[in-house]
Amino acid sequence: MEILQDKNLAKYLFERYTSNPKNWNFIISTSSLQDGFFDATISNTDEVWQLKIDSIYKPLPLVIGTKVDLDSTKIEKRINNNPLPFGYRKLEPPTIMNILKNLTEEQNMNAVKESDGNAYLNSILGSLETVRPVSGKNYVYGPVIFTKRNPINSNEYQKQVAEKLTFKLRDNLRNRYSSYG
What we know:
Layout: E1 4-5, H1 6-19, E2 25-30, E3 38-43, E4 48-53, E5 63-68, H2 72-78, E6 87-90, H3 93-108, H4 114-126, E7 130-131, E8 139-142, E9 145-147, H5 156-176
Parallel strand pairs: 2-9
Antiparallel strand pairs: 1-5, 2-3, 3-4, 4-5, 6-7, 6-8
């Protein structure tokens, strides 16, 4: 099992995304191991990656991950209530202005509910294709789904992978921060 971390992992996954920006999913959850870390699953139709993240509350978290042998359609089935795949979507300035204008008008009328605002944004984002990002353009990326349980920690293999990633992430934290327990 090859474990990638931080910049190498990000570079690899970004290259995979840019080679085919369709049908990606990004799920973050609290850890099923109660280890204080976060689990993440990144998948497309060809592969599934299992990640450990030290914190979602800091700008540059430590992240490690490995490719796992799992059918990506199982991920799709568990998150099928989200119609939007993860990805970069190109936003033109007129689209941004229309979004801001409509949300501001609805908020000023006190008629906007959180679910209505989410439905509006989902309809806008759903109409935009996921694309390969190019430097100097405006993009929005997401959605990143946050859940209480990681959808792939369902068998012993994934639990063992999660434990190995936890141990490796703890070692990395100890090496980087000498006072880390």
